[in-house]
Design a protein that fits this description.
The longest helix has 20 residues, at 171-190. α2 runs parallel beside α4, α8 (121-133) packs parallel to α10 and α9 (137-149) runs antiparallel to α10. This protein starts with 8 loop residues before the first helix and ends with a helix. The protein is mainly α. Helices cover 74% and strands 0% of the residues. It has 11 helices and no strands.
Length: 191
């Protein structure tokens, strides 16, 4: 394994420059200091450390939490070996900060599934947050079906986020949405 390209977390913490960049990005994210974070990003690129998925994920998280979703998306697109954290950072960034709506979050979610990255509780929480925020019960139902299929419904984050999807919905609207979603549910059950 090429350590510079894809180190594990233990290796990351033993390399001083990775550890330094990671620590700086955590501080920039907490402070929402976009100017300083961009400078850290420039140093990451200059030193050839941008291929480290952990640093790239930290950059996506940083830009998303600072509201610069276009840069977060660019960093995401440049990652060669995206992991579930890469996808979660962007999905959650758009679900919390984005104005594109849940359709974009669902598009990311579908792309994630298409490349065989398994969603986890953080993925589902982001999808449900977007569905709730934009009153998209149909997308919430699709993700809920997958939660059942993957036995992820015992997670507190998933359950809380899922409640928010259904909370403002009338039963008649939910039934209409279920009927509309029936083909999607059958499709997910066949995979």
């Amino acid at each position: 394994m090429n350590l510079a390209r894809n180190p594990n977390l233990t290796d990351l913490m033993t390399l001083p420059r990775y550890r330094s960049f990671f620590s700086e990005l955590v501080q920039c994210t907490k402070q929402k200091n976009l100017l300083r974070g961009r400078a850290v990003h420039a140093r990451i690129v200059q030193t050839g450390s941008s291929s480290c998925v952990y640093l790239s994920n930290s950059l996506i998280n940083f830009y998303a939490k600072c509201g610069d979703l276009s840069r977060a998306k660019r960093v995401f697109e440049n990652i060669q070996d995206k992991d579930v954290v890469s996808w979660n950072c962007l999905i959650n960034g758009y679900s919390q900060q984005g104005s594109k709506g849940s359709s974009f979050v669902m598009e990311l979610f579908q792309q994630m599934r298409a490349v065989n990255v398994l969603p986890n509780a953080h993925t589902f929480a982001g999808v449900f947050t977007a569905a709730s925020k934009f009153s998209d019960v149909f997308s919430g139902l699709q993700a809920h079906t997958l939660v059942i299929k993957t036995h992820s419904f015992h997670d507190v984050f998933v359950g809380s986020s899922l409640l928010n999807v259904y909370n403002p919905v009338s039963w008649s609207r939910l039934v209409r949405c279920l009927m509309k979603c029936q083909r999607g549910i059958r499709f997910l059950g066949q995979q």
